[in-house]
Design goal:
Elements (H helix, E strand, L loop, with lengths): L17 H14 L5 H8 L9 H17 L7 H7 L4 H8 L10 H26 L44 H5 L3 H9 L5 H19 L2 E4 L1 H16 L11 E5 L26 H8 L3 E6 L9 E2 L2 E2 L1 E2 L2 E5 L5 H8 L6 E5 L5 H7 L2 E4 L19 E6 L2 H11 L26 E4 L5 H9 L3 E4 L9 H16 L1 H5 L12 H8 L4 H21 L4 E4 L4 H10 L3 E10 L11 E9 L5 H12 L23
Parallel strand pairs: 2-3, 2-8, 11-12, 11-13
Antiparallel strand pairs: 1-3, 4-5, 6-7, 8-10, 9-10, 9-14, 13-15, 14-15
Amino acid sequence: MLPPRPPRPTPLPSSRPFHFLVVVSVLCFAAILTPAPAAVAAAASGDADGGGGEGGVIRIRTAAVARSAMDTKPFISAKDALKKEPISDVIALKDSMKYFDAEFFNDSKLREMEDGAKEFNVPAFRENRKLVATENGGLHNPSVLLFKSSWSSGSMTSETRSFEYPRASSVHRPTNDEDIAFMSVIELGELIRTKQITSRELTDIFLRRLKRYNPVLEAVITYTEDLAYKQAKEADDLLAQGKYLGPLHGIPYGLKDIIAVPHYKTTWGSRTFKNQVLDSEAYVYRRLKSAGAVLVAKLVTGSLAYDDIWFGGRTRNPWNIEEFSTGSSAGPAASTSAGMVPFAIGSETAGSIAYPAARCGVTALRPTFGTVARTDVMSISESLDKLGPFCRSAVDCAVVLDTIRGTDAGDPSSREVALGDPFHVDITKLTVGYLDDAEMEVVDVLSSKGVKLVPFKLNYTVESVQSILNITMDTDMLAHFDNWQREGHDDDYEAQDQWPVELRRARLIPAVDYIQAQRARGKLIREIKDSFTVDAFVGNVTDWERVCLGNLVGMPVVVVPTGLKSIENPPKGGTKRRTTVTTGIYAPPDHDHIALALAMAYQSVTDHNKQRPPIDDLGPNDVIQR
């Protein structure tokens, strides 16, 4: 659920083994066995233990050495000292306190802490791990500490009503499969409903495309071919009986491979779990199955939902296949962009819908936190993870969202969000802000459609937005993969500079500072709520600070393609490879329908979302370096 990170500041040496601390302390202890004159003087003055800080230990040991020096005992080497007097656990504990920003305990308090940890903390840790942490992935035993993203003081519960979808008019079956592959869900649904095509035929088309382009894009982990043909037959049989389930009836799609489907592998993109079969049905899969949709593939997730590297390779961008797709929803983004599926379900914790959708040039929705239940989906962070659709258009995103939204007992953070109908929003009554980095074509188009556009800026004083997200996400992730790390599987991880580094560092995040981060997060949310004086705003969708902020707040955003530009350093002779241009339309939590309505208005008079990537025809003399 993560994109590549901006360059990190030089980290503290938190990933060093703990025994390094002990060795450092031992060497310091040995070095002070030969006192300096000043130290002897200090000892003679009775300055033995002045309280906290490293000086306390040094003064104690120096006084002892001073006494031994006055007794004219022979010099003791560091090696001999270690043999004669083992390093104290208190010294090691004191030295380690700097990694917790807690260097204020004196020796007596450290001894008390050491005893308490041994007698109470460690036994309790072990007992709790036995209860809930033997299985990885956070699929069971969710936390009772729940994040509520709604800004309403009420419960916002109401009867959930389906959206009133538009019906595509005068839709005729194209003569070639390529054109069919790039039709919208609404258009394909009309072909199914009017029996111009069968679900079996659509399934054939998309499975062929998946197998044709996957060797280049590396976007598929598992083909669910047998299941797809079974579900397609069921959809065709129902239609023959006069039963039409709605716009997703018989429509093929793909799922990010963190989502459990019975009898098929759910690999989480990781070589550690590449043979894992979870015989359970994720809530989102159940919802799509009940709508008559046809699962054709489990699509690539970056390993343990981080970036685009997985155990089978690295997923590429169909618009420029020398680039990678970025973000852990790599497979859903690339497959939708290349016309390998009409839509797909991905997830985001910190940018893994926004980044790959922007890179691959598809429309996508990161919904309000809690809108879609995550039962039987691998968890990074229970207060950050969200499931959302990758589609050809904002209309399709609305259709898919309406199908998959809802609450489930397996996900205590899920709720019935009282969304309005995006197809019945009067956008002329909206005031929409635009940030300095907004794509101005979107601003101009919406203005021409009667929307009031005003310059806008989110104001907040919290400067630690990015670190709040990292502390939250990394600690939660470690809780879900505690056993994985303890068993040493991080050594087998596909990208050693990603989760392995972050989760080792997370071992040094104290519970108290995790809670302080959540309190700071609460302050941020209150400030954003007060600053959000418009109905929605338009701005860059891949700005890292905004990605962190949006996920911490739980606000929805629609990723909207707005154009194409030339790639940097194109080959001689030209190329059809392009860099996609996108923007984001953001709304307050529980107002996804506003963002969707604005995106639909923009796409109703533009065709950027309908462009097709040049994966078959790159141009003359354009050789891809693989």
